TrEMBL record:
Protein name: 4-hydroxy-3-methylbut-2-en-1-yl diphosphate synthase (flavodoxin)
Keyword Thylakoid assigned: no
Cofactor binding note from Swiss-Prot or TrEMBL: Binds 1 [4Fe-4S] cluster.
Reported cofactor(s): [4Fe-4S] cluster
Annotated binding of [4Fe-4S] cluster, by residue: C260, C263, C295, E302
Swiss-Prot/TrEMBL catalytic activity: (2E)-4-hydroxy-3-methylbut-2-enyl diphosphate + oxidized [flavodoxin] + H2O + 2 H(+) = 2-C-methyl-D-erythritol 2,4-cyclic diphosphate + reduced [flavodoxin]
Gene: ispG
GO molecular function, one term: 4-hydroxy-3-methylbut-2-en-1-yl diphosphate synthase activity (ferredoxin)
Length: 355
């Protein structure tokens, strides 16, 4: 069972929700743009934001953003322990480092600073950063080399007496990522895990690739924070993260939509109505389900768990809740029903929850 770490009041680990995170896609030097992106991410439900920190010259910008961001930050550090120290001095509550790339004396400084400031350290390896020696020791099996690379980093921090650690093993290969994390979770179940498929791409293929890997891990109980890494707006990464967690029945944020794929029986334009419903979902209470179904066959019965639903019928559309038809209305009244959907769904959910 994974232990718990706390990043600026955000609890990560066993017994806590799987956290959804993203990364700033704007340089820290663009202060106001970064802050606006942090605020937008917060509104979308993002709980942890990673920020690239490539130069100590950006220390003032990072400190400024740490003070103003509504979401805790994690500074992304590569190679240079001086950057890790500067990020901690700037008040960043968590950092991402590779201890194996740091001289032991300088690493001790980083650990001492993190302990003093009660900061969390994420360590991890990326499939693209494995060296020939690591691959040779693993017999050429990349997933095993990836797990071993993370273990090497963990043992270094354990030797330094540091325990507030998040583990991460990511690759652009689904199979490598799943196996590496499974190996690590078996051996080190006491640490929280961050999971993701790195460089997964964009659009449909990127979403499917990330979902395929993360679902396999989450289904095993592996993963305490997730990022859907996409060549898209970070807001899309967060929305996709919550969509995945809803599909896995791990978290609910706002409402969710059920809609049928349609067939020759459809009596209403399901896609058009679903497009009208979707913008309303985020304003609904967590866990409310709304259904849009093409006909009375797929309607109340197949979507009987929906708090509120609309289905095509011979005379227009039926409105239903939990499988029970409430009324039938002509098609021209459907937009009116959608306008009051949020209020109706909230009322129906409250009614059923109180039974």
């Amino acid at each position: 069972m994974a232990g718990t770490v706390i990043i600026a009041g955000l609890s990560i680990g066993s017994g806590h929700p799987v956290r959804v995170e993203s990364m700033l896609k704007i340089p820290l030097s663009s202060r106001e743009e970064c802050l606006e992106q942090c605020r937008s991410l917060a509104s979308s439900g993002c709980e942890l934001i990673r920020a690239a920190f490539p130069s100590p010259d950006l220390g003032g910008d990072l400190a400024w953003l740490n003070e103003k961001s509504p979401v805790p930050l994690m500074a992304d550090i590569h190679f240079d322990p001086a950057l890790a120290l500067a990020a901690l001095e700037a008040g960043t509550p968590s950092i991402r480092i590779n201890p194996g790339n740091m001289a032991r004396a300088r690493l001790r400084e980083v650990v001492a600073s993190a302990q003093e400031k009660k900061a969390v350290i994420r360590i991890g390896a990326n499939g693209g950063s494995l060296n020939s020696a690591q691959l040779e020791r693993a017999g050429g099996v990349r997933s095993d080399a990836l797990a071993a690379a993370v273990e090497e980093q963990l043992l270094i921090l354990m030797e330094e007496g540091f325990e507030d650690i998040i583990l991460s093993a990511k690759s652009t290969s689904v199979h490598e990522t799943v196996r590496a994390n499974s190996l690590l979770a078996l051996k080190y179940p006491g640490y929280p895990f961050h999971i993701g498929i790195t460089e997964s791409g964009y659009g449909r293929d990127g979403l499917v690739k990330s979902a395929a890997g993360l679902a396999l891990l989450l289904g095993q109980g592996i993963g305490n924070t997730i990022r859907i890494s996409l060549t898209e707006s970070p807001l899309e990464e967060v929305r996709a993260g919550y969509s995945l967690l809803r599909a896995m029945d791990l978290r609910q944020r706002g409402g969710s939509l059920i809609s049928c794929p349609t067939c020759g029986r459809k009596r209403i334009e399901v896609r058009k109505i679903a497009d009208l419903v979707t913008p309303c979902l985020e304003s609904l209470p967590d866990g409310v389900t709304v259904a849009v179904m093409g006909c009375e066959v797929n309607g109340p019965r197949e979507a009987m768990d929906a708090d509120f639903g609309i289905a095509g019928s011979p005379r227009g559309a039926v409105v239903f809740s939990k499988g029970t038809v409430l009324k039938e209305v002509p098609l021209e009244r459907v937009p009116e029903l959608l306008a009051g959907m949020a209020e109706e769904a909230c009322r129906l959910k409250e009614k059923h929850d109180n039974r």
